[in-house]
Amino acid sequence: MGDVRKLLKENKIKDAVEVALKMENTILKLEVLAYILRSVDNRDYQEFIFSQMFEAAESMDNLQDKAVAYAILAYSAYIMGKGKVDESLFQKALDLAKSLPYHSWRAETLADIAYYMAKADLFEESLRTFLLAYNTIRDSKEPYSIVVSVLSNIAKRLVRVGDSISNRVAVQFYNLAKEIYLSIRFRTQAKLVDEKIKFVQKVLKQKNLAVLEFLGQGDIDKAIASIRYLEPKERTLALLEISHWLFLHEKEKLARRILSDAFEMMLTGKFKPDDRELVKIAQKFIRIGLFDDALILAKIIEDKEKASEVLGNIALAYARFGKKEKALSIAEGIQNEIVKNKVLKALKGEEDVGHK
Questions:
Q1: CB 328 within 8 A of CB 320
Q2: How would you classify residue 131: left for phi > 0, otherwise alpha for psi between -120 and 50, otherwise beta?
Q3: Burial code of 42-76, b = ≥16 C-beta within 10 A, e = fewer?
Q4: DSSP line for 216-264
Q5: Residue % of the chain over a pLDDT of 90
Q6: Which of the four CATH numbers 1.25.40, 2.60.40, 1.10.3980, 1.10.1420 does domain 1-99 have?
Q7: Average pLDDT of 303-331?
Q8: pLDDT given for residue 83 in this prediction
Q9: 251: Cβ–Cβ under 8 A, 6 or more apart, which residues?
Q10: Rounded to an integer, what is the distance from CA 152 to the centroid of its chain?
């Protein structure tokens, strides 16, 4: 896979496809081809890759593998926007899986199909298929060790799907995984999944308050992990809060990267938090010496009164650090005349510059 990624970075798509086609394991070959297909925008390349995948799938004799192959094909068709094609391919995959002779084979294959359904954003169908896999293996008369192994694998796939979803639907997959782990007395795994459930529910309910709580506890990993469950405007605010925390804790490289993402979301994506929140963040930035970044925030604030107050504080802060010319330049740009005159008087020595 490393070779394929390298070739794709070099835009050598044909070479990447050739590497994939030489793989002996057909399922792995299809997974790599699906990855390549997802990575390219050229429709002609996508159609060529899809045709190669279809040919490889049709040539398979093992029905269990063939069912999974159809699911991979269905997911690839979804990527290409072939709605009816992916529906028919998923149905073919399901029909094959249900025809397998052993409960364990059927359950494993159904779980694989459910996984690719989730990747194709068919969450309702995916969960229903996972449930079918679960019920199929529970009815099995095969040795207990086989049943436990299959159930464990189904739960792992459910967790993997849950981890890939950035909304409340993730909880449904986690809940089923937890139920399965408890049914086979895998209590440690069930506890870990339960922690994921509580984490997602907390973030969905408390939103940015949860992020602030994690930062207050010094748990930067959880704070960052929370971002994906937030709406765009909430996400922007969370990025600003996290970057402030990182600057405060001398992790400047990561802080700068996260702050750049936040600015990009506001300036190009139009995902701007409430002006009051931006004022709070700007004041936090001023207190730790991030005057230039506070200045960017001030320019994003739409309320002229609030923006003027922030600009005034920035101008006074620059003056305290001996940058009088920069301070005067900012002060001259303040729109609120009362604030502007007050700041200019302070800068010219008529008031105490350090009063703020």
A1: no
A2: alpha
A3: eeebbebbbebbbebbeebeeebbbbbbbbbbbbb
A4: HTT-HHHHHHHGGGS-HHHHHHHHHHHHHHHHHTT-HHHHHHHHHHHHH
A5: 81
A6: 1.25.40
A7: 92
A8: 75
A9: none
A10: 25
